[in-house]
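Customer escalation, tier 2.

The customer says the design service returned an amino acid string that "doesn't look like it belongs to this structure." They asked us to rerun it and document both sides in this ticket. The original structure tokens are below, unchanged.
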């Protein structure tokens, strides 16, 4: 693994939506090696409650006036002790970060790209959209090859308009189409974000490649649609993690595999190492009561 550990100063901390915030850090070394869909761990120095760091997906890297990489950003929702502590940080404060971790999303294969996001699951898609549309390259040290898509669309759903975070960031990306859905109809389509996805799958044209991140029920629905329409689909799991580098096996996912004898089987894969992104056809979701 090529992860680095460093202390980083808070450069910017601002609200994005209800209970949702953006943190910009000056972690230059990490920012030059990370790709869309990868994540990093964040911890408050000198504090042991919570004891372990928490994973956050890259929102995007940021540059200074001379075009040099100056740091990176992530978004978070205040839901527990760690995110509550993050909400108290101010510009100039320090955090510990280590990464990049995980596999990240594959680069654009061309055709029509549809990003499907629910809750805070929109965060990996700003960088991915900017890469696909030629605005930015990742990783900065050794940019990967990207096939220009014919179209790129973000389908983003939330409970209501108050929880839609970073919409203006996405709308500022040249060539990116943004479609919104809310449960109550307060912004965009009233209903599920997967209903927006299905309209793209039904439409004639080049093959659709789906990238999705969000709550598990949404990912299950996206998986079902992708299999029904025989579309390539990459799902990014929001599995709780402890160590972030594969030692504790607390974040495993069930993955289909074929034995040497050609029989269907499955095994566990670590979301923090082999994931968090898995191909929809290989992922087995557990049935919870």
């Amino acid at each position: 693994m090529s992860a680095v550990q460093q202390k980083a100063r808070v450069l910017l901390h601002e609200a994005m939506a209800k209970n949702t915030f953006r943190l910009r850090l000056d972690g230059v070394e990490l920012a030059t090696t990370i790709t869309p869909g990868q994540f990093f761990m964040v911890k408050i120095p000198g504090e042991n409650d919570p004891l372990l760091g928490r994973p956050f997906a890259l929102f995007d890297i940021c540059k200074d006036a001379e075009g040099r990489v100056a740091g990176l950003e992530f978004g978070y929702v205040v839901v527990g002790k760690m995110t509550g502590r993050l909400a108290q940080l101010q510009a100039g404060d320090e955090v510990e970060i280590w990464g990049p971790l995980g596999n990240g999303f594959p680069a654009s294969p061309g055709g029509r790209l549809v990003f499907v996001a629910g809750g805070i699951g929109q965060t990996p898609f700003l960088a991915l959209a900017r890469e696909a549309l030629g605005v930015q390259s990742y990783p900065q040290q050794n940019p990967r090859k990207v096939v220009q898509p014919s179209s790129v669309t973000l389908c983003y759903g939330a409970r209501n308009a108050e929880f839609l975070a970073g919409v203006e960031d996405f709308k500022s990306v040249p060539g990116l189409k943004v479609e919104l859905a809310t449960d109550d109809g307060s912004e965009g389509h009233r209903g599920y974000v997967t209903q927006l996805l299905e309209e793209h799958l039904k439409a004639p044209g080049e093959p659709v490649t789906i990238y999705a991140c969000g709550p598990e029920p949404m990912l299950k629905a996206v998986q079902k649609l992708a299999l029904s329409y025989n579309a390539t689909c990459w799902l990014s799991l929001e599995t709780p993690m402890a160590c972030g580098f594969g030692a504790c096996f607390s974040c495993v996912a069930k993955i289909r595999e074929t034995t040497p004898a050609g029989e269907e089987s499955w095994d566990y894969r670590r979301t923090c190492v082999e994931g968090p992104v898995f191909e929809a056809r290989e992922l087995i979701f557990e049935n919870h009561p």
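Tier 2 assessment: The sequence is consistent with the input. The first helix runs from residue 28 to 31. Residues 4-101 form a domain with the Elongation Factor Tu (Ef-tu); domain 3 fold (CATH 2.40.30.10). Sent an explanation to the customer and offered a walkthrough call.
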